[in-house]
Amino acid sequence: MRIATLLLLFLLPAFCNAQELPLLGLAHVGFKVTDMEKARGFYTGVLGYPEAYNLKVNLDAPTTVYLKINDEQYILLTADLKDSENQRVSHVAMLTSDVRKAHSMLSGRGVAMEPVVTGTGGSQSFMFKDPDGNDLEMVEYRPGSSAANARGKAIGPNRISQRLRHAGVMVAKEQAALSFYRDKLGFRETWRGGPKEGETRWINLQMPGPSGDYIELMLYSQPPTRQSLGSMQHICLEVPDIEAAYRAVLARSAPDSIRQKPTVGLNRRRLLNLFDPDGSRTELMEPRTVDQ
Fold first, then answer.
1. Tens of pLDDT, residues 5-21
2. Angstrom distances, CA of residue 286 to CA of 32, 83, 271
3. Would you tell me how many other CB atoms lie within 10 Å of the CB of residue 270?
């Protein structure tokens, strides 16, 4: 009996690490903005995402506005960005089908996490950090929550995209980040690249589960400027036709406000980079390469 117990204790960590986390895809990315109305002009006026609901953590906290991409995915805007503050992405959230199971599994893998809590909107979630200090969240939309009640509602006809495909996070410690996302969270590397041959500046890590969503590690070695920070910390929205998306963006934008035209990225996909009033980047990208 004692031998069996010892064997179970020995094998349990390996079993926990072999199991896939119950992830359904990206849930949302939170952006801090200086002016909510100007931010709405971009995210709602240009990108076409309507407000599904808004929440406050407490009476003294600023209101967070939830802009709907689809029934499972949102962009969160909170007007609490200070003039001296360069960090504009507050956190990246992943959707789980079982938040307590995910918490238990990560605990078994040695990940430091906050407790599972029920938020103001009724969803259950927990926060944790990657080795570079990026704030991550796992959230489950519980029955009766604001997200669950919003299903089928606020589906705007002007949405530039119906899919949040990846989020970019800044990473200085490549090996520590890979060990965390790959070995602890079970993500799988699908591509890496950089502006020069043999140089790695970004690594795509696909999360477990059916969605195909991924995190893009944006590697850096020198302290980033405010501009480069806004570009590296980004979201990517998938569009079927980049030229059609570009025409829609032009029709909804002020003259000369679009910095770039569609181009072909190093991953051989057609893309377009847009920037909100605070300089945070939104990448529009086609799902297929130009060779397919």
1. 443 444 444 444 568 99
2. 27, 34, 6
3. 20
Walk across the sheet containing 234-238 and list its strands. 188-193, 202-206, 214-219, 164-171, 234-238, 281-289, 269-275, 263-264
Q: What is the pLDDT of residues 233-244, one digit of tens each?
A: 999 999 999 999
Two tokens at 165?
A: 């495909």
| CATH fold for the domain made of 22-149 | 2,3-Dihydroxybiphenyl 1,2-Dioxygenase; domain 1 (3.10.180)
Question: In angstroms, what CA-CA distances link 41 with 88, 135, 217?
Answer: 17, 26, 29
pLDDT of residue 210: 93
Strand 89-96 vs strand 23-32: parallel, antiparallel, or unpaired?
antiparallel
Domain ranges of the chain: 22-149
Cα-based distances in Å from 280 to 86, 90, 233, 276, 283:
10, 12, 7, 5, 10
* Residue 265 structure tokens: 């990225």
